[in-house]
Amino acid sequence: MPSSDWISLAGGLISLIGVGVIWIQTEKLSEQLLMQHFSDYTKRYQEIILQFPEDINKKEFVLRGRDDYEKTMRHMRAYIDLCYEEWYLNRRGLIDPEIWRIWEAGVQTAFSKPAFKQAWEIVKSDSNFGKQFEAFIEKCIQ
């Protein structure tokens, strides 16, 4: 085999290796971004729920008339906004389906509780998230 053929073969092999390395690096970067994204949303979620009153998960929770109504509603609105962002990202196909399943289960759990149902009624009366998101939350409530 002439040396020019060996050089061409070596060049092709090096190019193939280079493409493989770039592909692996891209996969690793994608995984890192996915983990960062998940971590950022988890942190935001924790910051919100740590501000809720201690009795937020009780069946007898009544939102209206509480001394901490305004503070609780501020954090409920932040939570609902976070839910909207997650829902929207999923709808656009911008998050991993496995992460969405985790988030969706969390939203369903939250909105199965009286405090979140009551807050949703208040928020949806003065906000407009769109019919599709509202239908998603209503489905979570049922």
Give a written overview of the molecule:
The chain is 76% helix and 0% strand. It has five helices and no strands. It has helices spanning 3-49, 69-91, 97-110, 114-126, 131-141. It is elongated, with a radius of gyration of 24 Å.
How are the SSEs placed, and which strands pair?
Elements: H1 3-49, H2 69-91, H3 97-110, H4 114-126, H5 131-141
Helix pairs in contact: 1-2, 2-3, 2-4
Structural class: mainly alpha
**What's the Cα radius of gyration?**
24 Å
How many beta-strand segments? Answer: 0
Number of helices: 5
Average pLDDT value?
Answer: 88
Uncertain residue segments: none
Task: Describe this protein with a few key phrases.
single chain; 142 residues; mainly alpha
Brief account:
The chain has helices at residues 3-49, 69-91, 97-110, 114-126, 131-141.
